[in-house]
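BUG: 3D viewer hangs when loading the predicted structure for this chain

Environment: internal workstation, default settings.
Expected: structure renders.
Actual: progress bar stalls at 90%.

Input used:
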Amino acid sequence: MRLQRYLAQCGVAARRKAEQLIVEGRVRVNGAVVDELGARVDPERDRVSVDGKAVTPQDTMYVVLNKPKGFVTTVEDPEGRPTVMELLPRLPVRVVPVGRLDFYSEGVLLLTNDGELAARLLSSRYEVEKTYHVKVRGHVKPAHLRALRQGVRLDDGSITKPAKVDRLPAASKHDWFVVTLTEGKNRQVRRMFEALGYGVTKLQRVAFAGITFHGLRVGDARELSQAEVDALRRLVKLPANTVSRGVWAARREETDRARRARRARAADATREGAAAGRAAHGGRGRGRR
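C-alpha cells produced before the viewer hung:
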C-alpha cells in the first residue's frame, strides 16, 4: 500500500496533505525518514510515525452534523471561537470536517477519519453535488439567473462551473433559491451572488453527496448508517469495504450547557479585564495629583 494512502486511512490527513507530510520529511517508516511519494508500506509489519508519534489504523467513523450558525468548521480555532467539534461529545475516535461551512452558514456537514473518502468527496474530479437553500437581498434579474447557471467570474478572476440554480416560491420581498454545485471554492455561493451585486442573508446546505439533515434538528448529529457509507464510497469510485456502526448520536441539549458555561467564563474574563483596566487608570490618575 502506498504510504500516503495508509496515512489517509489512519485518519492522519487527507491524501494530499499526507503527501505534503511525506515530502517535508515528517514521516518515518521503521525509524527511517521517508520523503518519496512512491514509498510503500505493509500495514501488518511496518511501523509508521508522523512527527515522532506512532500511526496506527483506527476504526473508521462517519458523522453528519446539522451545523448551526456561529461555529467555525475546524478542529481548533486560534481566535478562540466555538468550533463544530464542541457539538460532538463522546466521539469514540477522532474525526475531522469534510470541507467547510463558513461561520454564518448552517446545514449538512460531514466529518470522518476516512481520509481517502474525504479527499475524493472534495475533489472536483468526482463532481460531488452540494445543494444549498439561499436567501438573497432583493430580487435577482433573469439575466443574472442565467449567469449563475452558466458560470460567474468571481473576485479572484476565476469562473465557476455551470450550476443548477432555481428560484424557490416564497411570499417575500427577497428571493430564495436552491443552488447545486459540483465544486467547492471558498465561500462560493456567497461570492457568486456578490459578484452580481446581491447580498446573501441566509445560507443553508441541505444536502452533500446525497446525505441530508433529515431527522436532525440544528445542532444535532448522528453516525451514518452502513448503507449511507457504502453509497458515499461507491459515488467516488471506492470499494464499499469499510464498516460503520451507525450507533453514535448527539443531541444539542448535551452541548448547550457546556456552551453556556463557556460564554459565562468569557464574559467573566471580559469584566475582570475591564475592572483591572479601570483600576490601573485610576491608580495612574491618583499618582499624577
